[in-house]
Amino acid sequence: MAVVSLSSSSPILSPLLFTNPAASSSSSSHSNLPLFTVTNRPRPPTIVFSYKSRSDLSSEDKKILLERYGLDPHDLLFEPPPPPKSKRTKEVQKRGRGKEFQPPEEPKPPRTTHKLLQVLGGKARRKKLLSPKGMDVRPMMVVVKGAAFDILQAACGCPASLRPGRWLDLYSGTGSVGIEAISRGCSEVHFVEMDPWVVSDVLRPNLECTGFLDVSVIHTVRVENFLERAEQFVGKGGPFDYISVTPPYTEVDYGMLMGQISKSPLIGEDTFVVVEYPSRTNMLDSCGFLVKITERRFGRTHLVIYGPTWAQKNRK
């Protein structure tokens, strides 16, 4: 919609000097008096232009309308392009309006390994094992691992080696516990580790260098999911003879975890369960129908072993 207002020529007051002949003899102060006269001098028109966009008015009609009132359509119809958006503005709009801009995270350094672990006993004794540098994987301490296997062998009545059977290594990490079990007499070990990099770059190379890959089964899955679908992962092999539980201390609820294990079909009447846990953690005196055989403390690390009642008598 276009509205044009034209102001017509209006009278202009102009001061003139008027001389009165009759008063020429009068005082000079009254001889020349300024009088005002009205003249009709033309005045340029004032144009007030208001424009509102209409969908039914073409660009050509707009141009003709503007030219009719002596306006340059190029100056009024031309819209300058918006200023280019900065990189920061684009990032903010991309991430969402009103959200605080977060710079992209720097890539993490590549994970590396070193050989600080070794097999303590059995046919692979003194074999070096890989472990990740840093604290993302915490293997069982050498003194704790040695004590656990010595207790198991004594409880089974075979001080020199483990009673043959199947071992389940939960939160296996480097696989040092399960590898120790194979080295000391176990016939098969199932490793449960959720980190694909640990499995491909640490666990599998350790099994290959010790020659135990053929008697090992690796499950790359969370322990909780493995326990929920144990029969699907393990098949119809029945309960395990040994189960080791070495989780990261701050990432598990031991009460829920042990309750899930005690109700699992993976535990039988003759199963031994080895659990490593931190101080200030209350562990039950039984795990299902298994009884507590022994409990040890190694600084801030604690070790408890559950087993059948006959093993408790052998232990005494």
Automatic annotation (TrEMBL):
Q: Which organism is it from?
A: Lithocarpus litseifolius
Record's protein name:
rRNA methyltransferase YlbH
InterPro entries per UniProt = RNA_MeTrfase_RsmD (IPR004398), SAM-dependent_MTases_sf (IPR029063)
Q: Which UniProt keywords apply?
A: Methyltransferase, Transferase
Q: Which GO terms describe its molecular function?
A: methyltransferase activity
UniProt keyword Cytoplasm present: no
The processes (GO biological process) annotated in the record are: rRNA methylation
Key word Manganese present: no
Membrane-spanning parts:
none
Q: Where is this region: Disordered?
A: 74-112
Q: Which domain of life is it from?
A: Eukaryota
What Pfam families does the record tag this protein with? Cons_hypoth95
